């Protein structure tokens, strides 16, 4: 039996992923369990206090049914195959990343959703893009199927906003760092793995070279940025493709040195694999002045505060498991 559907609800697709799991926690904290509906391709292992449904977002009819049954007003589509996994299964990555977005945009158009959020990525940039302080508008020649799908997705978002008036909003996330979820197959996963291995084994072997600088962001900042953009008045959202978003930029060696301040016996070596070439095609730092100007974006975490908080929580996690 469906819950009372008089109130508009928020739907999160891909809710078991790195972003989704923490976005759900913040949405339910802000608006209550009854205001949020979560979906994924599988159900969570434990029962939730909010509605959680199994949904394949590629099934357009099933998506429309959920939107109708639960009176959805705002939709976050976080379903995607990430960069490293995408290179192993490029056609599948393209199908999932693109069809899920198009189904979402069509639902927004046909069912008159109030707002839609879809995440883009720094993967839209490529070898011809300026790598330092990468601007909002510049040449883009992504070299991965993930990046190609995200760039195409940005153009679809802008098209639906201009042609059909869909209020779709997007952020180009940098690499995201979280203690709550394990990595999901991205090129920046080392920045999460390194903390776990530092606590467990006092050693980590990085799959990126020691001097490979990439833009990163601590997950609390990413969630705050996402909700800040979604809370912004419609007239403030001037970029309908996707906004640049910046937090922290560092290399594996710089991150390892920061961890050593907390764990002096920690050591790190470097054995770059196929992800090195992907990382070298991406920016080293991001210019996000348009996000600041349009809707007031400003990160709260720097490298020092992020590392301190990550280690605090990861130590608690492994202590609880003993």
Brief account:
By secondary structure, the chain is of the alpha/beta class.
Walk me through the topology.
Elements: E1 9-13, H1 18-31, E2 36-40, E3 51-54, H2 60-69, E4 72-77, H3 83-88, H4 90-110, E5 115-117, E6 120-121, H5 145-164, E7 168-169, E8 171-173, E9 175-177, H6 190-200, E10 203-206, E11 214-218, H7 219-231, E12 243-244, E13 248-250, H8 252-262, E14 267-270, H9 275-280, H10 289-295, H11 303-321
Parallel strand pairs: 1-2, 1-4, 2-3, 4-5, 5-7, 6-8, 8-12, 9-11, 10-14
Antiparallel strand pairs: 11-13
Q: Which labels suit this protein?
A:
about 325 residues; alpha/beta; six-stranded parallel β-sheet; 14 strands
Structure description:
With 322 residues, the chain is α/β, with parallel strands linked by helices. It has eleven helices and 14 strands. The strands form four sheets. It has a six-stranded parallel β-sheet, with helices on both faces. A three-stranded parallel β-sheet has the order 6-8-12. A three-stranded mixed β-sheet has the order 9-11-13. Strand 1 (9-13), helix 1 (18-31) and strand 2 form a beta-alpha-beta unit. Helix 6 crosses helix 11. The protein is globular and about 55 Å long. The termini are far apart. The mean pLDDT is 94.
